[in-house]
Amino acid sequence: MNDFLKYIKHLLVGLLLFPFFVSGQTLQTITLSGYVQDAKKAPLPYANVVLKTQKDSLFVVGTITNENGGFKIENLKSSIYILEVSMVGFVTHKQNYTVGLLSPFLNLGVVELEADARILTEVSIVAEARDGVSEKMDKKTFNLSNNVTQIGGSVLQAMQNLPGITIQDGKVQLRGNDKVAVLIDGKQNAVTGFGSQTGLDNIPASAIERIEIINNPSARYDANGNAGIINIIYKKNKQEGFNGKVGLTSGLGALWVRKENLPGIRPQYQATPKVNPFLSLNYRKNKVNTFLQADVLSTQTLNRNDFGERIYDDGTVIRQQVKRNRTTTFSTLKMGVDWNPEDQNSFTFSGYLNKERILDRGDIPYFNADLSVRSRLWQFLEDEVKYTATASALYQHKFQQPGHVINAGFNYTFHREDEKYFFTNILPTFAGEDAFKLLSDEHVADLNFDYIKPLKHGRLETGVKFRRRTIPTNMQFFPGLNSPLDVNAGGWADYKETIPALYGNYVYENVKFEIEAGLRLEYVKVNYDVNPGHNTYTSDGYDYSRPFPNLRIAYKLGDKHKISVFYNERVDRPNEVDIRIFPKYDEPEVIKVGNPTLRPQFTKSIELGHRATWQKGSIYSALFLKNVDATITRIATTVSGSSLIYNIFQNADKSNNRGGEVTLDQQLTSWYKLNISASIYRNTIDRFTVTNKYPVPTTYHMNEDAITSWNAKLNSSVKLSNQSNLQVSAIYLAPDIIPQGKIGSRFSVDMGYKIQIQKGKGELFFNGTDILNTLYTRREIFGNNFVLRSTDYLETQVFRIGYSYKF
C-alpha cells in the first residue's frame, strides 16, 4: 500500500508538471455512386445529381451522370443531406437513404425518373468523424507523430503509452493477454513473427505512420491471435513530384546504476548510446509512384538485470543475478512502385530487406544465501544475425462502380536466423567452454484473392488465402571440458505448415442498426519432424478443420451514442520456437525447452461496448469475456536429485479473462488535451495436471489460480504555441498472474517536447522515458518443490533528442 501511495504521489506530480495526449485520426469520407434511368430502363445521361443539407436545403455538392447514366459523388463529410435527381422532362426525384461509416464506398443502385410520378421521399446520408476509437468500435488508431514522448525509440516502446496496451517481458498485451497477432501493413511478416511477437523492440518508430489496435477482428483477418491484432502501418507518401523526409535521433540510457552487481562479474552497461538515422523518399509522376524508406536503429541496452533467489523444499537457497548487456543494429530498406496503367487497373510491387545483428554478453553468478560461497559463474556471448527479405506483388481491378474491386496478391518471405552461442562455465575446481551454432531458414508463401462489392446499405466481402510455410532448423553442439549440458542438445528439426482458408463477410446498416457478420473456414496441417536419435521427442504434428465466426450488432441511440455487441472465435497456434526441441541455455540452471506435442488453443469472445461523443470529446466503455480451451502456458519443474529448473510450454485446461475498460478523450481548453484509459479484468486458470517430458517425465499439478488486476494510463498535451507542445504520460500496472506465479505492480512517467521550425519543414524534439526511474519488475514463481523470487532492474530510463526535415 505504501508503494501504491508513492506511485499516486508521483502520478499527481507528473500530471501537474507535464500533460500529454496520444491518439488522432483524420476524417473518414464516403463515396456515393449509382445510376439514373427512365421507366423503360434506358440510361439517362447528363441528369443533375445534387446534395443539399437537410436542415436548410443549402447546396453542398453536385454532379451530372455520364453517358451510361452513372454518377459518383466523393468526399462526403459528416452531415445529413437531401439527394435530388432531376432532368428536363422528368419530375425531380427525392428519397430517404441512410449511410454510415462502415463502408467507404456505397452503391445507391438505380434511380428511376418518370414523367408523371409523384415526388418520392427524401434521402438522408449520415457520415461522422472518427477519432481514436472507430465508429464501428472494432479498432483504435493512433498516429505515432502525436506520441512525442516516444519519438526516436522502438515500436514496442511507442506502444506502451497507447490505451488498452500493456508491455510485459518484451511482449505486447491486450487486456492482460499476450496472444496478439502483429501485422505489418496488414500482413504477417517474419520480422514480427507469424502468429507470434518478435522484433518489436528493434523496429524504429520513426518508420511508422500509425498503429491500429483491433480487439475484435472480422473474418477478413487470419484466425490466429485470441487477444486481438496490432497492425503496424509504415509511412508511405503519394504527393505529386519529388519529396521526402530525413532525420537523426540520438540518446542515452542507463545513466545510473539502479542496483550493484553481485561480486565478481563484469560491469553493467552504463550511458548506453542510441542512434537512429532515417530517410524517406518519394517520387510521383503521372501513373507511377515510387517510394524508398531506409532506417538504422543502433542501440546499446542493459537488456536484463534480474536479481533472484531460489528456495527449495529441502532448505537449499541459491541467490543469482542474470545480467545481459546487449548491442543491437537493426537496418531496414523498404522500396516499391505503384503503377496505374489505367483507371481500372493498378499494380504495386514492393520489397522489404532487413538485417538485425544482436550481441549479448551475459554474466550469471550463483551464490549461497549469504553470498559467502559462489558455486558457479556462467558467462555467455550470443552472436545472432537475422536476415529478412520480403517480395510482394499486388493487383487491383476496379469495376465501373466505385468501391467494387478485386484484389489479388502474392507475398514471399525468407527469414534466416544465424545464431552462435559461446558459454564459459566457471566452477571452483575447473572452467569449461561450450558452444552452439543454430541455423534456421524460414520460407513463407502467401497467395490471396479478395472481392468487395458495395451494396445499397453496406457491402459484401469474400476471398480465399493459401499459405505454405517451412522452417528447417539445424542445431550443432560443441561440448567443452566436463560440460554440464545435455549431450543430446543438438540435432535437426523440420517444421511444415499448410493453411488454406476461405472467408465471407457481410455488412448492413440502416438509420438505427448496424450488422457485420462473417465466417472464416480454415484448414491447418502441421508436420514437425525431428531427428530419429532425439532422446525425448519423436516427430509429431496436428491438423484441424474449423469455422471461425464473427458477429457485430450495433444500435444507434441518436447521433451521439452507439451500443455494439461483438462475438468471435479465434485460435492460437503454437509458434515454431514454442515447439523447438533444443534446450536454450541463457541460464544454465533455468532452462527453456520447446514442446512438439503442444496443440492450438481455441478462444470464444464476447464484448459489449458503448461509445458516446460530444463536441470536444468522447468516451468508450466495454465489458468483455474470453473463454480459452487448451490454454498454452509455460510450466517450470525440477527433476529428482537436481536443482535445475526446466521451463516448458504445455496445454493446461481451461482459462478465462473477463473485465471492462474505459477510454476518455477530452479537449479541456484550446491548449490542453487529455486522454485517460483504464482496464480492470480477472484472469482465471482452472486446475490442471501436465507432464513435462524433458529431460525425464515429471508430473505437475496446479490448483485453480485467479487474480483481479487493473491498469490505468493518463496522457495529456499542452499546446505552448502554434509550433510547440509539451506532453507527458503516466502508467500504473497493478499486480497480475503469470504462469505458476505473480508479477508485481509497475509504474512510470514519460515526457516529451516538440517544436516546429524552418516554417514547418523542420522539427526538433526532446523526450525521456521513465523519468522517475521507478519501472522495475518483481516476480514470484511457485514450482513443484521450489519458489523463485526475482526483481529485474533492467534499463528503462532513456533520454533522446532528435531532428527531422521534410522536403
Structural class estimated from helices and strands: mainly beta
Mean residue pLDDT: 86
Morphology call? globular
Strand proportion: over 45%
| Gap from first CA to last CA | 53 Å
The counted number of beta strands is 44
Give me the Rg, rounded.
29 Å
Largest sheet: 22 strands, antiparallel, barrel
Give helix % range. under 10%
List low-confidence stretches: 1-5, 7-27, 117-131
Number of helices: 3
How would you characterize the overall build of this protein?
This protein is 3% helix and 61% strand. The strands form 7 sheets. It has a 22-stranded antiparallel barrel. The chain is globular. Residues 1-5, 7-27 and 117-131 have low confidence and may be disordered.
Task: List descriptors.
807 residues; mainly beta; 22-stranded antiparallel beta barrel; four-stranded antiparallel beta sheet; 44 strands
Describe the SSE topology.
Blueprint: H1 2-17, E1 30-38, E2 48-53, E3 59-64, E4 70-76, E5 81-86, E6 93-94, E7 105-113, E8 139-143, H2 155-159, E9 165-168, E10 171-174, E11 180-184, E12 208-214, E13 228-234, E14 241-253, E15 272-285, E16 288-312, E17 317-342, E18 345-367, E19 374-398, E20 405-426, E21 431-455, E22 458-478, E23 491-509, E24 513-530, E25 540-556, E26 561-572, H3 576-579, E27 590-593, E28 601-614, E29 617-629, E30 632-637, E31 645-651, E32 655-667, E33 672-685, E34 688-692, E35 698-702, E36 705-719, E37 724-733, E38 736-738, E39 741-743, E40 746-757, E41 762-769, E42 777-782, E43 786-792, E44 798-806
Parallel strand pairs: 1-7, 11-13, 27-31
Antiparallel strand pairs: 1-4, 2-3, 2-5, 5-6, 8-12, 9-10, 12-13, 14-15, 14-44, 15-16, 16-17, 16-43, 17-18, 18-19, 19-20, 20-21, 21-22, 22-23, 23-24, 24-25, 25-26, 26-28, 28-29, 29-32, 30-31, 32-33, 33-36, 34-35, 36-37, 37-40, 38-39, 39-42, 40-41, 41-44, 42-43
